[in-house]
Every structure is written in structure tokens, then in C-alpha cells.
């Protein structure tokens, strides 16, 4: 759960120099973004996290509560400020560099996620910014409650520290994250390593090229839509993950949920906000129907 600052360079990017541009501030964080997207799509959401006992934390919680997100599991920290993420985008909206200050999230430990927090849950979404011991704890209690789990590794460094992921239903890395997690330079070997652990779906993200669903039975499904008009790529992966879980919760098979999710990401890159404020299930379904 972060406050995001997005800085967009107006012209060509000049490394090592001051670049003219515009900045904006918004609420962010992978877990928070997924929660907001799920709520806007119509799924009930319970969020666990940490924010500072500061104005940013209060603003984050107030906005989520307006969307009926259950924030009872969010701890206020007196000694760590609310997290921040600063992203520099080029004039096409592509990420140049990002800086994450995750001290509050780093403090979220197993004790912050009691077993009862998963009571009644249909799915658990884990943000790879969490500590490995917290992720391991969440996987263990999800297994006890028979709750399927989706995990976004969020980056190469975070992916490399994850270790084994027993009981994971869907893993959503890009190429580099998958290789870093598996400790190999062979993409096929990395996927086999995942399925050998019991991971049912490796959803390989491929940026502007789309994504590919790899299931344990050896099937591969490429999810490709026509190029989207890009305003800002920030948050597209979070919308994709949320939409996927939203439709799995509704009973869709994996591939059908993946297509719905792809359309949600397509819509989000065309929005100036990290989470598209007009996002609805009907909008995503209509967009997918028009594009396919």
C-alpha cells in the first residue's frame, strides 16, 4: 500500500540530465491496486497490509473504504511511514525507472496475518513485495482453509528470494522474474520447475506482446489483443491480475478468465490513472467482444 508519484518526461529521455515533464500523485501498491480493481469489478475484498500512522495512510484507507474494501486487517505503524513508489515514464508512457520505499510493507510479518483472516475467502492474492516468511505463512494457512492462491512476484529481485511455492495455483512472472525465481537461464526448465512444485498455472507476462498461459497439462494459450493506445502502463498488470481472480471467483475456466483479464489491462494502459475509475465488468466484457 503506497502513495505513487508518477513523473512523465515530455520529450526524448536524456539520461543523467534534468528532463522537462509533469508529475502526479496517486494511491498505489500492487496489493492495494488489485484490491481496488477487484472492488470496482464487483468482488468483495478483504485487504491485509501496513500503512504509517500519517496523513498518507489515512487517505489510502479512506478511499478504499469508500469502495467497501474491508480494511480491518490493515495495521497502522507508528514508526514507519506509509510506503512510496516513484516512477519515471517516458513520453510514450513506458517505465524508465522506478524507486520503491517499502519499509512499512517490509514490516508486515506472519503475526499480521492470523489464520482467521482467510475464513470465507474464495481466493488469496499475494503481493511479492511481502517478506518470504510472510508469504510462506500465507501459503500454509491458505492450504489449511483450502483457498487457492495467486502470486505476483513484482520484480526480479523479489522473485529471486521467493523460494518454493507449495500449493500455488497461479504464478504471474515475466521472463526475467521466472528465470530469477527458478535459478536458471532456461525458460522451459523454469516452467517445468514451477509445474513440478505443483503450480497449476504459470502466466508468463510479455509486456506489449501480451501474455501466455502455461498449464500443468502442457497446454499453452497465447493471450493477444490489438495494440492499445498507451497513456500510462503503470497498474496494467494489477488490473490484469484482479480481473483474472474476479472471473475465476465467478467460476470461469482459466483461459476464459485470462482473456477477460487481458481486456482489463488493455483498458488500463489507456487511462491516466493507475486504476481506471470507470472500470466495470460490463466495460471489460464489451471491450473484449469488440477486440476479438
CATH architecture of the domain at 1-105: 3-Layer(aba) Sandwich
CATH domain topology of the domain at 1-105: UDP-N-acetylmuramoyl-L-alanine:D-glutamate ligase
| Shape category | globular
Tell me the radius of gyration.
18 Å
The number of distinct helices, counting runs of at least 4 residues, comes to 10
The tally of beta strands, per DSSP, is: 12
Please mark out the parts with pLDDT under 50 across 5 or more consecutive residues, or reply none. Answer: none
Helical/strand content category: alpha/beta
What proportion of the residues is helical, as a percent range? 25-40%
Largest sheet: 6 strands, mixed
Question: Features of this protein?
Answer:
292 residues; alpha/beta; UDP-N-acetylmuramoyl-L-alanine:D-glutamate ligase; six-stranded mixed β-sheet; four-stranded mixed β-sheet; 36% helix
Describe the structure.
This protein has 292 residues and is an alpha/beta fold. It has a domain at 1-105: UDP-N-acetylmuramoyl-L-alanine:D-glutamate ligase. The chain is built from ten helices and twelve strands. A six-stranded mixed beta sheet has the order 7-8-9-10-11-12, with helices on both faces. A four-stranded mixed beta sheet has the order 2-1-5-6. The chain has a two-stranded parallel ribbon with strand order 3-4. Strand 8, helix 5 (156-160) and strand 9 form a beta-alpha-beta unit. Helix 8 runs antiparallel to helix 9. The longest helix is centred in the last third of the chain and has 16 residues, at 254-269. The two termini are 34 Å apart. It comes from Nocardioides pocheonensis. Residues 15-26 have a biased composition (Polar residues). Residues 1-29 are annotated as: Disordered. Pfam families: PfkB. Residues 18-274 form the Carbohydrate kinase PfkB domain.
Amino acid at each position: 500500500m503506497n502513495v505513487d508519484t508518477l513523473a512523465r518526461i515530455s520529450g526524448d529521455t536524456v539520461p543523467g540530465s534534468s528532463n522537462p515533464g509533469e508529475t502526479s500523485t496517486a494511491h498505489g501498491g500492487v496489493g492495494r491496486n488489485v484490491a481496488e480493481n477487484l472492488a470496482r469489478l464487483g468482488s468483495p475484498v478483504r485487504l491485509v497490509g501496513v500503512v504509517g500512522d500519517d496523513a498518507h495512510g489515512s487517505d489510502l484507507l479512506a478511499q478504499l473504504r469508500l469502495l467497501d474494501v474491508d480494511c480491518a486487517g490493515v495495521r497502522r505503524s507508528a514508526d514507519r511511514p506509509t510506503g512510496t513508489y516513484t516512477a519515471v515514464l517516458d513520453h510514450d508512457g513506458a517505465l524508465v525507472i522506478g524507486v520503491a520505499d517499502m519499509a512499512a510493507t517490509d514490516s508486515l510479518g506472519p503475526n499480521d496475518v492470523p489464520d482467521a483472516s482467510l475464513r470465507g475467502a474464495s481466493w488469496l492474492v499475494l503481493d511479492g513485495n511481502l517478506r518470504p516468511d510472510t508469504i510462506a505463512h500465507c501459503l500454509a494457512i491458505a492450504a489449511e482453509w483450502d483457498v487457492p492462491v495467486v502470486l505476483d512476484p513484482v520484480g526480479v529481485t523479489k522473485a529471486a528470494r521467493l523460494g518454493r511455492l507449495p500449493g500455488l495455483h497461479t504464478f504471474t512472472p515475466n521472463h526475467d522474474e521466472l528465470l530469477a525465481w527458478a535459478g536458471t537461464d532456461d525458460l522451459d526448465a523454469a516452467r517445468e520447475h514451477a509445474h513440478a512444485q505443483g503450480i497449476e498455472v504459470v502466466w508468463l507476462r510479455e509486456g506489449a506482446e501480451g501474455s501466455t498461459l502455461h498449464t500443468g497439462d502442457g497446454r499453452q494459450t497465447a493471450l493477444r489483443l490489438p495494440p492499445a493506445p498507451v497513456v500510462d502502463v503503470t497498474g496494467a498488470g494489477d488490473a490484469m491480475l484482479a480481473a483474472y481472480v474476479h472471473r475465476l471467483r465467478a467460476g470461469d475456466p482459466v483461459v476464459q478468465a485470462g482473456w477477460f483479464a487481458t481486456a482489463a489491462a488493455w483498458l488500463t494502459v489507456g487511462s491516466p490513472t493507475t486504476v481506471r475509475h470507470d472500470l466495470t465488468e460490463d466495460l471489460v466484457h464489451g471491450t473484449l467482444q469488440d477486440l476479438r
